[in-house]
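Predict structure. Chain length: 565.
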Amino acid sequence: MQLRNIKIHLLKLSVIFIAIIFVYPTEWYPFKVRLVLTSWLGAESYRPLPESVEPLEIESELVCPNDLSGWRKSHVIEGVEIEASLPCLADNPYGVAAFVLGTNNVSKETLQRSGLSPDAIEKGRDLDGDGDPDEIHIRLEIAELNGSSPISERPVTTFDIAPGIQPGIWVFAPKFIGMAVENFETQEARYSLKLPSPAIRVEQGDIIKVTLENTHYMPHTLHLHGADHGFVDSSGEGNDGVPLTSELPILPGQSRTYDLTPRKSGTMFYHCHVQPHVHVQMGLQGLFIIEENRPNNWLQTMNLGAGKVRVPSKSLKESYDSEYDLHYLDLDKELSVRIQKDNDPRLITKSMHRDYDITDANVDFFTLNGRSFPYTFRESLIVSQEGEKAKLRVVNGGSKGIALHTHGHKFTVIERDGVELPKTNQAPQDVLWIATSQRYDLDLSFVNNGTNSYGPGIWLYHDHQNKGTTTDGIGPGGNISAIVDKKYLNEAGWPITKGVDYGKYFTADYYQKKIPIWESYIPSFYSDPEKDTIFMLRILLLILLVGVLLNTLRALFTQMRSERT
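Prediction complete.
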């Protein structure tokens, strides 16, 4: 009887093995085995492709929001001539006027419209009699964007670097009054709170004071990277912003003033130097520009969000038609979410400064002037006109090097790290490697001669490392922007492109990987496929048969052991 049972089990095993051979997906066999099977049995019968999923109905935001406040056009506010900003988003011109004249020197109406504190930018005496102030006192605060709140599940004081992309960031900001958000109906951060921290402009030889009022829950300092400043101030206190050597960190609720009278002009950098491997990458960094001394030189002391300088300096106007601040910064998603998981400073401190390991980090977001494509086309276009010339001040504030490439143009490097290059080292080029914290001044000519410019158009400029043009692994994204001739801009300030429809890029679904890349081209061909149900059934049957096989083997071994005894 037992022998008969063994024979039955062996027969069952044979049937199961044959069933497994037929059920086992052929695409899983080694290639050589598949060749042998094909020679024995002939080619596999044709199996049609899976059915396509119906294309998604895309609800996108406005490509170019309406300029209801008229901020894009040129203005004259309290005698300050503010140039137009042709791309579709622009900074508040009343804020620009306050940055030029000083918040202590403008009318109440201008100050109110700017949203700045009366002591945000104080400009004092003309000490050398050249018609402009030589005493400048700048006050900065610290703001958290896209952080957590005990009363909300969503990030508060939001700042989108791309549609639906809200990494947690920290920024230096001009001292302001009122709410941190635009109004009671939105969580969107006010215009003065944005990534990157503002580009600061001062004049060579001026007496500069920068006060950092720590309105944050972390300790911070201010380091003036590359700017000419003493190690200690006039009172003997540390003046370099480095806790390891010159001073204690500024604790929450405290403030500290840094002094400098810069002797050399050039493009410099400022950033926090407390746990800089974390704090700098969180966004606490900005351009610090020292302009050459000129008479009657009322500077735009801050340029929020960087981009076009709307009140260029006297020295700039001597050689150029326009000036742009270009601030590149990459962000690590793993780091940025740590301020969104908790609102207890103790937990955030542990998470960021002990648990987070930057040596294992990979960056996910690549920004230009605080935004990623397509938002870069709203604010960071370089607007050209044939025959004109622009000056670009560029800093790489990210953790990785960038390879800046311009289409249709070649630029000339005229200054590196605040030092002018010899004329013999200045040659046109279209790719420039910029290491972390490096600054370059570039001469960009729009003379259509086949070298400086190939002629009017919409010419991209971007990091030529592939990852730099992605957002969380999705392209196009990242730090892509463009050099656009005026005649290729529509009335709203958007480029008149010859390429794809931009609508799908202005929806969070695209960067959340819910929309196929080329779905709009041939929906039936490029949309997502339905699941291969036949394949899944074969897998399920295979799992079932393997289970029956193992159970039969167990029964067989039990029967054989019983036969021996």
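Summary: The two ends are 14 Å apart (CA to CA).
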